[in-house]
Amino acid sequence: DVHERIPPIQGVWLAKAVEPYRLFFLEDLFAPEDNDYFRMVRAQCSTPIAMGELFVNQAEYVPLIRERLIDFIRVHISDIGGLSMARKLAAFCEFMGVRTAWHGPGDVSPVGHAANMHLDLAVPNFGIQELALFPERTREVFPGCPEVHDGCLWANDKPGLGIDINEELAAKYPFPEHEYNGAWAEIRRLDGTVVKP
Asked: Given CB 3.0 to 4.6 Å as the disulfide criterion, which of 29, 70, 175, 191 pairs with 11?
């Protein structure tokens, strides 16, 4: 995962340099405003590309999918309009040979992970699922968390997304004030320039 932290031309070089290692995918190589560089990558190498954690509108994906410039969509489902919009976007991707890789880091709640998993089960162009392994305390607050067995994420047989929240137990674990409210700490280059998350 590059997290858009290098200049675009270095991203083109990196995609070519890692090609012999046959990555499953190279993620978030360019910032959204640098999407035109994907054409250069596609013209010069076959490294699979995943993109989209920072996109906040489903339309941002359309040119990259239509022109077959990416291989995986890295959608943060709540950022693009929820389950229905994500399902529509996955259907569009299916026509263009693009697979899903819904965004699922540790700052996505267990409810978000359950939504990702149910979308995985509903789309024929499922690629891979990023996930966080939640500690026991979190699983107690969110009964029905998706479970991992033998390297696979498993749904349960409960209705809906199969997950609930124990609000009384959750009240015992308030969010720490010293945290960045779920956001990343600021990262700077040696010259003091802020680097995108």
From this structure: 29
